[in-house]
Amino acid sequence: MNEIIVVIGGGIAGMEAVGTLLSLGHTPILIEAGPKLGGHVASWHKLFPDLSSAGELVSRLQEYMKGANIFLGTRVISLNRLADGYSLKLSNGMVINASAILLTTGFQLFDASRKEEYGYGVYDHVITNSDLEAWLAGRADARVPKNPEHIGFVHCVGSRDIKACNSQCSKVCCATAIKQAIEIKEKFPYARVYCFYMDLRLFGKKYEDFYVNAQRDYGIQFIRGRVSEVGETRDGALQIKAEDTLSGKPLKLRLDLLVLMSGIVRNDSIRELSLMAGLETDSDGFLRSVDNEYSVVESNRPGIFFAGACTGPKTVPETIAEARSAALSAHRYLQRTTIIR
Amino acid sequence: MTDFGFTLSCSSTLDLGKVDNDKFEELCRLEPGAGVCIGCGSCSAVCPSARLSGMSVRKVLLAVRRGRNVREMLQCCMLCGKCTIVCPRGINTRNLILSICKLYDD
Q1: pLDDT digits (tens, 9 = 90+) for A315-326
Q2: What CATH number should be reported for the domain holding residue B34?
Q3: Which chain A residues contact residue B12 at CB under 8 A?
Q4: What pLDDT score was predicted for residue A340?
Q5: pTM (2 d.p.)
Q6: Nearest residue on chain A to B24, judged by CA atoms?
Q7: Is B12 among the domain residues?
Q8: For A17-85, what is the HEC assignment?
Q9: Can you say how many angstroms the Cα of residue A101 is from the centroid of all Cα atoms in its chain?
Q10: How are beta strands A238-244 and A229-232 bridged, if at all?
Q11: CA A305 to chain centre
Q12: A249–B17: do the CB atoms touch at under 8 Å?
């Protein structure tokens, strides 16, 4: 097998796909725009629901894909359709003729400053889920106070929100909020931690146990009500307003730290690439699969496959499973076309 | 004394940070299930007393969380145990109710 499969995007989906393609006897080429592999997961601390290390997952994948051709800091400049494949021109000057392409371009986080009522980037102690994750992983952050007494989490920031142009659920933030609430409670055992939610969507394996754990063993308070606005007090703390919908009363709360659970939105940096390849966009803004039930990893173009969050929000195990599935689909596609030729 | 003009009524806003958590924390020690209520309301839906008295275990538990005195709210409970049977989170509501009574009677 000497046909080339190009994998675009070096997050966990791309890494897993490359590893699987190697084990199937292919010689995939991985192209990553950033300076390192691992994507979003590389800057995370722990994964739910088992609280295993995100860094360890990335190193495991790195081990799995040993021997692959990797181009870091490289982008696809142009993509042309050929009779039996695709010709890609890279930013490092290389031209690759690929028989199949696997897109693992992932997602980007909703820009929390667009929800102006929450004051991200305006008030001193408002951070996002990714800021907190980086802080938990060891990065210093002056916005996290030394000894916070009251810490709040706002679910669904830029998800299930027509005004924010993202009406879909981001799927992973509920479980992430619970994970981060537990982790921050462990760091500050005397703090009171509140989660403001619209619905709690804890669909996955053991997520419900995780939720009970947060309620019973960590005393995290779940308040059903969307935070309507955030203000800053004279002494630099935060004052938030919401409705305690279960008791039907307006609620206010002074917080020392507010964490916004930014949702998952489509990766805007692949717009050009998808136009060049002639790929379609689904109504939710993500790349459109052939269908959303059976052929999620297949695109409308022959020989182009998807894996991971480029087609919508996904958890880590879903992304890994899809990467394997897409690698296998690409493998079968090449076998089929080789036989025809 | 004049009885005309405007008066200010107290704000009904709940200041969550100032809520006294002691009673609720004590309740969690007596009945660990107190913390895992998801407010589904099945306890109140099956309660034979609810229709006549407005009794609601869900509301009582929420009121304890919000630092209010709830002793009066439980007066019409007959301890029939139907709420224990239906609770999806397996909360021992009988023990919960008796614990609340103990807490507020002291």
Answers
A1: 999 999 999 999
A2: 1.10.1060.10
A3: 249-250
A4: 58
A5: 0.93
A6: A219
A7: no
A8: HHHHHHHCCCCCEEECCCCCCCHHHHHCCEECCCCEEHHHHHHHHHHHCCCCEEECCCCEEEEEEECCE
A9: 21
A10: antiparallel
A11: 19
A12: no
Residues 6+ apart with CB under 8 A from A131: A141, A143, A259
As for the ipTM of the complex, it is: 0.90
Q: Answer whether residue B13 is part of any domain.
A: no
Residue range A85-115, pLDDT digits in tens: 999 999 999 999 999 999 999 999 999 999 9
Please report, as a single letter, which amino acid is at residue A271: R
Other CB atoms within 10 Å distance of the CB of residue A259:
28
Is residue B81 situated within a structural domain? Answer: yes
Distance, in Å, from the CA atom of A41 to the CA atom of A318, rounded to the nearest integer, reads 14
Task: Count the domains in chain B.
Answer: 1
Q: What is the pLDDT of residues A6-58, one digit of tens each?
A: 999 999 999 999 999 999 999 999 999 999 999 999 999 999 999 999 999 99
Q: Does A219 touch chain B (CB under 8 A)?
A: yes
Which segments of chain A have a pLDDT < 70?
1-2, 337-341
Which domains are present in chain A?
A: 5-106+267-340 (3.50.50.60), 112-263 (3.50.50.60)
Residues 58-87 of B with CB under 8 A from A: 59, 62-63, 65-66
Q: Which residue has the tokens 């969050």?
A: A309
SS3 of A251, please?
A: strand
